[in-house]
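Standup notes
- DV: blocked on the single-chain target, sequence here:
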Amino acid sequence: MLTRIDHVGIVVHDLDASLKTYCDDLGFRLLQRVSIPEQMVEAAFLDAGNGTIELIAPTDESSGTARFLQNRGEGTHHICFEVDDIAAVLETLRGQGLRLIDETPRQGVHGLVAFVHPKATHGTMIELLQKHE
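- DV (later): unblocked, structure below
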C-alpha cells in the first residue's frame, strides 16, 4: 500500500538559517524552494540521497505550522510515503478506522497529497503522496 518513504518533513522557525545548516554545514543539496500560500508556509526540498528532506517554515502566525512550532518547537513534522493510488489508500485506511486529516486528496507541490492524523499513528503525522506522472 505504501511503496516507499518519499521525504521527512521538518518544521523550522527560519528557513534561511535552516538551509545554511543543512546545506552548508551538513552538505545536503537544495533541490527546490517554494512558497505554498494556501498552507501559509515556505518549503525547501533537499536531496538526501535515497530520499528527500522537506524543511517547512510558516509564513503566517495563524497557520497550523506556526501552531505546531509554538506547541512542539522545531523538529520532525511528518513522514511522507509514496502511494500508487491515493484514493484507494484513503478508502482502505478509512475502512480500517484510522483517523484522517484529509478525507479526499488535495493538490500538493509534487502531486496529490493527504494526511493521516498523528493520533492514528502513535504520534507521527503521515503524509500520503501520489506523484505527478
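- Follow-up: The first strand starts at residue 4 and ends at 11.
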